[in-house]
Amino acid sequence: MTQGSLLLFVLAALLSSVIAGIRWPRAWLALVIGGAITAMAAALWTLLGSRWEWQSTFLLGGEALHFRLDSVSAWFLALVAATGGAGAVYSREYWPDSHYRESAPKGRIWWSLFLIFMGLVLTVSNGLHFLIAWELFAVCGYFLITLDGQRRETRAAGWLYLAASHAGTMCLFAFFALLALHNNGSWNLVPMRERPELAPLFWLALFGFGVKAGFFPLHVWLPSAHASAPSHVSAIMSGVAIKMGVYGIVRFGGWLPIPSAAPCVMMGLGTVSALLGIAFAFVQNDFKRLLAYCSVENIGIIMIGIGAALLAATHGDAPWGRLALAGALLHIWNHGAFKSLLFFCAGSVLHSTHTREMSRLGGLLRTMPWTGGLFALGALAVTGLPPLNGFVSEWLIYLGLFDAAVGREHIACFSIPTVIILAMSGAIAMAGFAKAVAMMFLGRPRTRAAAHSRECGVWMRGPMLALAGICVAIGLAPVVICPVLSGIMADWRPGPADIQALAPISTLGAAQMTLAILVLAAAALLWRRTCREDLRRGPTWDCGYAFPTARMQYTSASFSGIAASWFRRIFLPERKSRRPRGIFPLESVCMERFPDTVLEKLINPAGGAALQLYSAARRLQHGRLQFYILYVLGGVAGLGVLVMIGGSP
Amino acid sequence: MIIIADFILRLAFWLLLAPLLPGVINKVKAWVAGRRGPPVLQLYYDLAKLWRKGVVISEVASPGFVIGPAVAWVALLSSALLMPLGPAGSVVSFRGDVLLLIYLLALARFSLAWAAMETGSAFEGMGTAREVSYAVLAETAIITAVLALIVNAGSISLITMLSPSTGAGVALLAAGLFIVLLAENCRVPFDDPNTHLELTMIHEVMILDHSGPPLAVILHGASIKLLLFTLLLVQVALPLGEMSPLAATGALAAGVLLVTVGVGLVESFLVRLAFRRVPLLLTAAFLLCLFALLVVWKGRAQ
User: Fold this and answer.
1) pLDDT per residue over B177-196, tens digit each?
2) Which residues on chain B are in Cβ contact (under 8 Å) with A420?
3) Among A322, A147, A152, which Cα is nearest to A233's?
4) Interface test with A, best of B67, B99, B296 (most A CBs within 10 A)
5) How far is B250 from chain A (nearest CA, A)?
6) What percent of chain B has pLDDT over 70?
């Protein structure tokens, strides 16, 4: 038995789950979980050192089927399996048949197909088939986002997603077609590092995959799609689907020769994504949009790592590039785990309060202790605080960049600004998640909906706990992952691959473990010391204010006000306010909105202008025959004139 | 055996000596103002008293209100243990430990922010918002200073990073880090540790609702943080690695005392900044560190 038979089983399970999804939710769930576990097993098998390749003579579209599972794709496949399985369990309670009679079966079917096509994208080794799988994967994503098509906002978000996704796919069409052209018509995908004439093609791949990965400024579809989709879909979109774009970049970054400017551009784009992504996240008042923008930041961090790795690869395989690459690879998984966890928690809040406005929540920690605690854990992980997993991967990336700063002179010109901005975005991430946690879970409930919220059930809590477990495990024992990371790097491009020789990761693991134990011990000690018989409860002191109400609490917008003012040239906030007037003011309003600058100030106006142009051109086509004859006459006359002027050759 | 003794001595150093610094600062301030002032050991008495006291907790607060300060204290103490003590070195040193130190400080900040927001008070919300926002600039300045040290020493572990002389950039770096020290430890001109009821506050307002042992833990943690930043500043400013151990120890102690007195003098002669100027001063600190980085860079290139 090889991975091939396991993967065949996965395919069979998922395909039958498509049928089971129509009517039999339990069978569907069992099949999806079975498929996910098997896929995980196949991925682990590959990661532990045996790659798998299978070529058939069966033709599809004139090309022979060719599958390959090496450790790079297995790393992503494991992520798809983990989140796919967790999300399927989660959706049982979150999107049940009893509530969504129409869309629940659709959701199950598209979910299974989504997993199948993501798996295919990761395993096919033929450009044409890659394109087919890619397109189908994108379309499944569209149907999942618009599951709840009743709402106008959701439809708009889905439409934007589809448009952006196709803009990227168009580039990929050009990319694979040109690649096939250069390979004498063969669509087979193999390492092509020794052919410098292929280097310009990397730009096409960078743009095409970049749209899916969602780094700045190609992220325009991401915030609304991730915010409007059902939360289990947001989780897999944010945690896994955008990683397919990263997969493309990692894969072809490893297989193609790299144009010399590309690594620096990638690092630059990554830096901008990290800073602006998290800055936009900080000012959001909608918690799902906040999480979505935070994905832009994390993709930026991953891009910085990959960019640094490519930079090192073009400079004689310097070991610091491998450190950054290890960080980026680990961050792919880490982000998959904690972002899915956060979206699951967000879904749990949404499920019970029906609002995405943070300023309408508050005090949920008392009614939803599990969700609150797990969200806090996810927030600690996503801000990269020790002793969780986010810190390990960011630490590796920093270490690589620091080594680059110490080493060669002109490379340091890129790594030093990157480090500074990365640190800045880390601090903003901390501020943003402090705000999210505080507004949603701490203090007093600001509305009735928040006061009457209820904890989610076991089906939603289970997947959340599993993902939280991954975050804690990678954080406390990063050494376990090291051999896997080394294997992936060896498969990626030849070069130094032993991570433990480059970074003292076992020492870090020990430090993290010690820290975790100390934190628990100190917390327990102080809690015991505090909870004695003389513990008293009283109203919040608040400098002696006698009757505080819940609405006097600090709001989300005021929390981020200071930082928002620093970035106002970029955010261009829209503000509507009616100040209180007169001696007995009746009402006053202040509304502030932070539109996505790239979408609303750049792409929307450009799109509007293009539409105007097209509708002006459409006036030529009005259905009156005599005018059409005139066009034909005019055309013939024009041709005649052209021939006359052109003369004979 | 020696390792354990060494560890216990260090722990004792940080735990016992840290609360001395605020006492010295207060003594300096009193001396400048011509008062007698509280005893140097006042914070020790306060901590002992607070530890014995009962606690009043807001009805709104959950256990996080108490756990937050505990986590912050552990994070601060752990980051302190990573900081080398001149010739004595540090407990554990590895490549990249400086990042762990910076992120532990961030962890402390996050958990204190959490504890502050537990009460649902607008005051504490305001303080927390300011704290986390200004931390963005402070952290940027710190990482820039660290980069300058890294480029200078060619190493990314704290112990080797801090030992060589920083050359011409040292004055810029020390000035930048001194401003960061003032900002991070709620000192004038950023914050006034003496007041409680004014709106222009950052850190102090975050702990309005804490009392008893949790407050003691917060105050002790704050004094550890002050000592940590002071030690960082002194070790950056003085090339301790190039002195004999005895001289280095003396220089370290004198340096810490000097910085502490300096903080006291700043507090005596300066007023708190207008609120909108706080980011400007922090940006100035960042720029100082950045120029130091450039100077070090230039010095190394030649």
Assistant:
1) 999 999 999 888 888 777 65
2) 140, 143-144, 147
3) A147
4) B99
5) 31
6) 97
Question: Which of B136, B204, B283 should we substitute to test contact with A (largest number of A Cβ atoms within 10 Å)?
Answer: B136
Cβ distance of B156 and A399 shorter than 8 Å:
yes
Report the pLDDT value the prediction gives residue A589, as an integer from 0 to 100. 87
Which residues in chain B are contacts of A539 at CB distance < 8 A? 58-59
Token pair listed for A502: 């480059």
Work out the angle between the directed axes of helices B20-33 and B245-269 (0-180°, nearest 10): 50
Looking at residue A647, what is its pLDDT?
64
Beta carbon pairs, A and B, within 8 Å: 240
CA distances from A64 to A12, A51, B18 (A): 21, 20, 72
CA dihedral B107, B113, B119, B124 (to 10 degrees): 160
Classify residue A633 by burial, with Cβ atoms within 10 Å: 0-12, 13-18, 19+: exposed
- Among the residue ranges A533-547, B100-114, B214-228, the one predicted with the least confidence is A533-547
Helices (H), A229-368: 231-236, 242-255, 262-283, 287-313, 319-353, 364-367
Question: Would you state the structure tokens that stand for residue A337, as one six-digit string?
Answer: 């785990």
Do A504 and B150 lie within an 8 Å CB cutoff? no
pLDDT, tens only, A85-127: 999 999 999 999 998 988 999 999 999 999 999 999 999 999 9
pTM (predicted TM-score): 0.95
Cis-peptide into A105, omega within 30 deg:
no
Question: Please, are residues B113 and B132 in contact by the beta-carbon 8 Å criterion?
Answer: yes
CA distance to partner chain B, nearest, from residue A384 (Å): 8
Residue A354 backbone class (left: φ over 0; alpha: ψ -120 to 50; beta: rest):
left
Q: How many CB atoms lie within 10 A of CB B148?
A: 28
ipTM of the modeled complex? 0.95
End-to-end CA distance of chain A: 70
Domain locations in chain A as residue ranges:
1-180+192-251, 260-522, 565-573+592-616, 619-649
d(CA A29, CA A26): 5
Residue entry with tokens 């704050």: B222
Residue reference for tokens 């498509």: A18
Q: Which residue has the higher pLDDT, B191 or B117?
A: B117
If you ran DSSP here, which 8-state letter would residue A64 be given? E
A52-60 and A63-69 beta bridge pairing: antiparallel
Q: Measure the CA–CA gap between B113 and B206, rounded to whole angstroms.
A: 7
Residues of chain A with pLDDT under 50: none
Round to whole Å and give the CA distance between B269 and A213.
Answer: 54
